[in-house]
Design goal:
Length: 361
């Protein structure tokens, strides 16, 4: 059962959250309450009061080697997602030889710190092992391989994963299905199969479909919506929709995100922002940081305004380890903290939203 606070928020404080964004520096006064309360005001702790988990993707090398990284990952967030270590190329680099070491470490870290784990991801077209992509398998072989992978991985983590991104990025931006090896060899039915296999292996995990560029109402989010309606009609065990939330200040922030998320909410589905980051053209400056804060703010507000939005996860929290500079030429500085772990305006914007949602403003 959901706590009432979010229902109250959705009902009565929506207008406040929908008000035009202001980029306030965090203005919460301490009133001499000391460090215990200061810790209680982390994003994760505030999120719990607003009935939403605030999570981060975790880079396992940083977690092992960088103490400030580890401390922040533990204290600031109430859920974690492995950035890479549950992906197929990591867990089964050679056919039939599983390596769960790094993923198990993260699951243990989460348990020690009272965090939930988002599993990411059982089925994707990227980061597949070479033996699989170069194997030239028949359709029947590939289907058996996929079934085994999903079953074995979901079973390995059974009972320890809160939400699984079962399928990741299966759509093109125009709303057609992505021309991956899965679609080519297995046909569109592979999506329903993936959910059924995952559910059979771990019946309690919440099963999500996850994608990017589906923040607002557009061809892609509508195609995904139509697919989800169809899957629910066919009684496929799908519980939620993950909206990645990779934004750039060079494009408009998706101000219709709440409207989009409501469609899924009305179907009775859970929703989540699963990979939020807002990149800027480098070098960054204070104007860009304010635009960035607005991007984060729009994403979190979308979640807070949606009844069954369960979590808001950032794709890394420090610019020190971000995937962005390697992927988007000329862009970077996409995270809440800079390379020295100094909080940016985006961090304050999220705190302000959570304080409001938690009824403390
Ligand atoms: C990225 C990781 O952050 C990188 O370290 C890796 O090299 C490539 O994948 N959408 C997803 C994530 O679903 O899994 C991707 O993560 C980012 C885009």
């Amino acid at each position: 059962m959901r706590k009432p606070i979010k229902a109250v928020l959705v009902g009565t404080a929506a207008a406040a959250l929908l008000a035009p964004c202001t980029i306030n520096a965090f203005a919460h006064e301490d009133h001499g309450r000391g460090s215990r309360d200061a810790q209680a005001d982390t994003l994760g702790a505030l999120g719990l009061r607003a009935d939403v988990r605030i999570g981060t993707a975790v880079d396992m090398a940083a977690l092992a080697d960088d103490e400030p990284y580890r401390a922040k990952a533990a204290s600031e967030f109430s859920s974690v997602t492995p950035e890479n270590v549950m992906k197929w190329e990591v867990v089964e680099p050679n056919r039939g030889q599983y390596d769960w070491k790094e993923a198990d470490k993260l699951v243990d870290f989460a348990r020690v710190n009272g965090q939930l784990v988002r599993g990411h991801t059982l089925l994707w077209h990227n980061q597949l092992p070479a033996w699989l992509t170069t194997g030239d398998f028949t359709a029947d072989e590939l289907r058996a391989i996929l079934r085994k992978h999903i079953t074995d991985e979901a079973r390995h983590f059974k009972g320890r994963i809160w939400q699984w991104d079962v399928v990741n990025e299966v759509f093109n931006d125009d709303g057609t299905l992505r021309d991956s090896i899965w679609l080519q060899k297995l046909g569109p039915g592979y999506i329903a199969d993936a959910f059924r296999w995952a559910h059979a292996a771990d019946p309690k995990a919440k099963l999500f479909i996850n994608d990017y560029n589906i923040e607002g109402v557009n061809a892609k989010s509508t195609a995904l919506y139509n697919l989800v309606v169809k899957l629910r009609k066919q009684r496929v065990p799908i519980d939620g929709v993950g909206i990645q939330g990779h934004l750039s200040v060079q494009y408009n922030a998706p101000h219709d995100i709440a409207e989009n998320m409501k469609r899924f909410d009305d179907l009775g589905l859970e929703t989540a922002i699963t990979e939020a980051d807002v990149r800027v053209p480098m070098p960054s400056d204070s104007t860009k940081q304010e635009a960035q804060a607005e991007g984060y703010d729009v994403l979190l507000r979308g979640c807070l305004l949606t009844r069954k939005c369960t979590d808001f996860t950032v794709w890394g929290f420090t610019d020190k380890y971000s995937w962005v500079p390697d992927t988007f030429e000329g862009e970077g500085a996409a995270n809440l903290f800079d390379e020295d772990y100094k909080a940016k305006p985006a961090y304050s914007a999220l705190r302000d939203d959570l304080l409001l949602a938690a009824g403390r403003n």
